Amino acid sequence: MATREGNDTKVVLSETDIPTKWYNIQADLKTPAPPVLHPGTGQPIGPQDLAPLFPMGLIKQEVSQERWLEIPDEVRDVLRLWRPSPLYRARRLEKALGTPARIYYKYEGVSPAGSHKPNTAVAQVYYNKQEGVARIATETGAGQWGSALAMACQFFGLQCKVYMVKVSYQQKPYRRIMMETWGAQVVASPSTDTQAGKKVLEADPDSPGSLGIAISEAVEDAATRDDTKYSLGSVLNHVLLHQTVIGLEAKKQLEKADDEAEIVIGCAGGGSNFAGLAFPFVGDKLTGKNKTIRAIAVEPTACPSLTKGKYVYDFGDTVGLTPLVKMYTLGHTFVPAPLHAGGLRYHGMAPLVCKLYEEKYIEAVAVPQVAAFEAAVRFARSEGIIPAPESAHAIRVVIDEAKKCTEAGRGKAILFNLSGHGHFDLSAYEAFLTGKLQDYEYPSAKVEEALRHLPKVKA
Amino acid sequence: MATREGNDTKVVLSETDIPTKWYNIQADLKTPAPPVLHPGTGQPIGPQDLAPLFPMGLIKQEVSQERWLEIPDEVRDVLRLWRPSPLYRARRLEKALGTPARIYYKYEGVSPAGSHKPNTAVAQVYYNKQEGVARIATETGAGQWGSALAMACQFFGLQCKVYMVKVSYQQKPYRRIMMETWGAQVVASPSTDTQAGKKVLEADPDSPGSLGIAISEAVEDAATRDDTKYSLGSVLNHVLLHQTVIGLEAKKQLEKADDEAEIVIGCAGGGSNFAGLAFPFVGDKLTGKNKTIRAIAVEPTACPSLTKGKYVYDFGDTVGLTPLVKMYTLGHTFVPAPLHAGGLRYHGMAPLVCKLYEEKYIEAVAVPQVAAFEAAVRFARSEGIIPAPESAHAIRVVIDEAKKCTEAGRGKAILFNLSGHGHFDLSAYEAFLTGKLQDYEYPSAKVEEALRHLPKVKA
Fold first, then answer.
1. How far is the C-alpha of B137 from the C-alpha of A33, rounded, in Å?
2. DSSP assigned state of B391
3. Which chain A residue is nearest to residue B93, measuring alpha carbons?
4. What's the rounded Cα separation, in Å, for the pair B268 and A38?
5. Beta bridge pairs of residue B105
6. CB-based contact A112 B154, cutoff 8 Å
7. Cβ contact (<8 Å) for A182 and B14?
């Protein structure tokens, strides 16, 4: 095994090491997370308010204060197909950088859908099936989440309907075909399948669509059909919970490697891959077991909700349909620049990540996309794997922290989440390699404008 | 671990289990393989004849009669990045088929390039570097081989020039970008970089290119530059040798699973992934250690060299530049139909595979592509992974053999090579899912015609 001093590259675990419980960081918070509010009344919502959209099994997890939640055997039996994911020691990258840092990465691209997303998709579909749901509707942008849910639905025999943002549907056919190969029905959004979609098309028949519109369609679909629920791939507490298998495995693997993480790094769009890796480590900080560990969420300069946003109540979606959640937000009407890291183009951030950031248990850094791709290419040329554009942002900060180790003359153990591969994002690499990739400045005027449209919350 | 009776899905090994020696089946042949002949003299060629194109380290392996050849530590250190590859028990597929068969697959798609090709690319680049070669030229069709070699050259600090068939260069930009991300220089072939390319372009400025033309360009490049050698991704003995890590690992994994393969299956284009998995098992048949094991090479109906070709001396390439090798061939001038499984569009077959087929140590089956994709979609919906179109052909025969087990009421252990993933072949899946994928009959008239153009070999 990859001991700290040996020359092994990977720490692999056997399937008996797949966690049997998810770690719920809510149990270890100093004060409870702020409640989710009803947009009309300004009052905290209850489980029944969410029942039209989610099965009760997931709603219970959303609000649970228990530290450990059992992972059902049926879920673990699917996770076995790619879990435990390998923990790599990036020896070749360390050498290329000439750093004394010990760099580790958890590789989530080994799932058949190519990212960490199936970890929660499988759990979500399972709880839906448990409660007799026959069909799930969701939205997807570039397709990472849609393909994870399509695969999970196929495994449990549920139908899956994906509203895919039209511009992605047209420009990125491969993710669509992937979903169809796993049996999902995919339509370009706005579609004529919903009232919301029809309304948009009436106003603009050539609408390219947006994630906000696609959410509206999926929510309407789920709310108007008895056999259907809705499913979300990030942000919510239960989604972050399901992703903690990543960090729990990583801890066990580092122990096997006779090492201990000092810095934990993940990119953060909605926050689920960052939280999945970091929460089990941050939990040790909350409980005082490890007071020095640093966890860094990395976001793009063009969409820096944690580092530039306001910690207030806002809508989770662009259109303003969801309950109000307290989070760092750039304003729900803010439309981020067309970054290649589509998964990081979100105006807000998972409420649990925000609370930990507000209380200084975690840090955040924003990086520009050209610097992220420079880091990703360096990574690919050392380690082989071509990272997803989202993960590239994490790698930028890993390399920066490794350089600080070089300057300080002391090696630290840095752990990061390589949340997915970049096989469907190679056009972004081409733009970088040919010098055509552009950076986007922090859009302060647009953010200021969007922050003016925050919902008013009744006291 | 995945015991025969347990419920684990994968058998994983640690890096110390990566084989330390390649298995050379030439040592166990009953009679030596027929010699390679000089096309001009008809006489067996010697190592010096190959020296302009290949480093002596590889030429020695090509003709070695030693059973076990040491894998250099520097090669194993790169293989660690993805090896040992997992052995899966396809429990979900077995259940979907309702078969008593125990289906295992070795998954080679875990390499960063997405197929088994890097197993030999790394070894080839290593031996080139050992002998001071600074640059390697090769050809690639759809890009599997080119991307494996690009990555390996990057790891060892060699330059890499890839002549990519122009029609693929234009239609499949992702594989090209992958090669460029790993630092290779890629040109559309025919190119103006070689005399061979210029000649083709003079006659037809719009030539779409072909693998034959690209080979001519790469060979000319290597032969006319002192710093450059040529590299081939299949067919040759040393390539098959390097791939035996697949079968050697699989044997160890099956032992850990307390099972023994009764049928071993791989798709066969040039023959290297089939040989890589099967030769360690076929070796047991040659030496009498296991008399009953069956090894089945699966080829496409549209290009069935083993099942329909002639066992004669022919050129390895389309143009007729290479030495003459004795193999099952459809004639070097035969141009296969535009199958989606580009890796199976080869007029001949690795000479070692052919000799074993001639002597009935292995079997061969040809399957049509629609049936192959039907099997691949069934596989993806059970196991998650979307197979490469080449691997889909193997899966077709796996499912057929599993059905025979069902009919006979006796479960056998079937092992196959899932040689790569289909992330860059999703348009083929779309064609299948929309009913537009067509089958190609066996082109008997075209083969008859091509067989009339076999080279005359002096007695």
1. 60
2. H
3. A155
4. 61
5. B88, B416
6. no
7. no
pLDDT digits (tens, 9 = 90+) for A373-423: 999 999 999 999 999 999 999 999 999 999 999 999 999 999 999 999 999
Q: Chain B residue closest to A74 (CA)?
A: B7
Cα–Cα distance, B279 to B357 (Å, whole number): 12
Strand segments, DSSP code E, in A102-227 are 102-107, 135-140, 159-165, 185-189
Distance from the Cα of A200 to chain B's closest Cα (Å) equals: 29
This prediction's pTM: 0.97
Q: How far does the CA of residue B125 sit from the closest CA of chain A (Å)?
A: 15
Structure tokens, A198: 């029809």
| CB contacts, 8 Å: B152 with chain A | none
Q: Which two tokens stand for residue B129?
A: 């570097």
What's the CATH architecture for A10-20+72-114+238-451? Answer: 3-Layer(aba) Sandwich (3.40)
Q: What is the pLDDT of residue A171?
A: 86
Q: For chain B, what is the total number of helices (H) and then of strands (E)?
A: 18, 15
In 3D space, the residue among B420, B360, B371, B421 whose CA is nearest the CA of residue B393 turns out to be B371
**How far apart are the C-alpha atoms of A12 and A89, rounded to whole Å?**
11
- From B443, B274, B268, B300, select the one nearest B371 (Cα to Cα): B300
CB pairs under 8 A between A and B: 115
Return the ∠ at Cα B28 (arms to B22 and B33), rounded to 5°: 100
**Distance between CA A204 and CA A202 in Å, rounded?**
6
Mean pLDDT of B333-355: 92
**Contact call for residues A380 and A392 (beta carbons, < 8 A):** no
Rounded CA-CA distance A336/A331 in Å is 11
CB-CB contact of A242 with A72 (8 Å): no
Contact A429 B381 (CB under 8 A): no
Q: What average pLDDT score do residues B49-76 get?
A: 97
B338 alpha carbon, distance to own chain's centre = 18
Q: Is B223 left (phi over 0), alpha (psi -120 to 50) or beta?
A: alpha
Is the per-residue pLDDT at A288 higher than 60? yes
Nearest to A367 by CA among A444, A299, A306: A299
- Cα-trace Rg, chain B: 21
- ipTM rounded to 2 decimals: 0.96
Amino acid at A135: R
Q: Dihedral sign, CA of A82, A87, A92, A93?
A: positive
From A392, A389, A361, A365, select the one nearest A306 (Cα to Cα).
A365
Distance CA A126, CA A155 (A): 9
**How far B182 CA sits from the closest chain A CA (Å)?**
6
CA distance A195 to B105: 47
CB of A291 closer than 8 Å to CB of A284: no
What separation in angstroms does the CA of B331 have from each of B94, B334, B345, B402? 39, 5, 13, 34
Place A355 in a pLDDT band, splitting at 50, 70 and 90. Answer: very high
